[in-house]
Every structure is written in C-alpha cells, then in structure tokens.
Amino acid sequence: MIISIGSDHAGFKYKEEVKKHLESLGHKVIDEGTYSLDSCNYAEFALKAAEDVSYKRSDLGILVCSSGEGICMAANKVKGIRCGIGYNDEVSHLVREHNNANMITFGQSFMSLEDVLRRVDIFLNAKFEGGRHEKRVNTIIDYEK
Is the pTM of this model over 0.90? Predict the structure, then answer.
C-alpha cells in the first residue's frame, strides 16, 4: 500500500515513528512534511497529503498534529477526503468500516505513541462495510459534486 503522511512541528516526532512503522510493514510512504521541529503551518502539510490521496498518488493518508483537530479540518477541505480522528481503538476502525475514511489523524499531545501505532494498524486493516453505510457516504460524495 502507498500511504501519504504529514504533520506539523507538534506532531513531527510521532510522524517519524509512524513512517518507520509503516515502512517496517512493507508499505511505501510519501512523507509530505514537515521535516523538523521548527514551528510551521499544519494546513500546508495536511493539504499536500490529502491531495496525494484525492489524486490517487496514495491509497490512504495519516496525519499528526498536537490534537489531531486542525490537521483533520484542513484535510477534509480537499475534495474526496473523508478524514477522522483516531481518538480510540474503536473509532480507528469505525471511521473506515462505517465512513469509508481514507485518512486518519492523531494528536501527539493527547495520545501515547504506543496507542497511535496500534491505531494506525487498526485503521489500515479495517475495511468499508458498505451496506447501510454506503448510502450515507454517497450522500457526502454527491454533495461534493
């Protein structure tokens, strides 16, 4: 799988760890930055990673900032993106199974690295259930058009 990742300075440490984890599992990673702990604009990196997913340069996207909130909001502005915050294990699979999310975000200041890496795996292994959820997702897709 090809996975696009991004973060701001407040999520940089975890982004680097997520990148290593993904590569150890055999995934190709597109790292859209940031590339240091220097203060930066989270939206830039969220939008780059989201465009990778939207334009099919990557299969899925993973983003990290301090809370997971701002970077999630930015990603969801890109057409075709359905991004949620993986704030617990259950939600980390439900965003894919029920909402067909193609991106997930995490908050470095509010989650342990161990939890984030586990939730990355949960997200990657979950599959969209379709069925009753498909109509709801299609409502969002139709609205975007």
Answer: yes
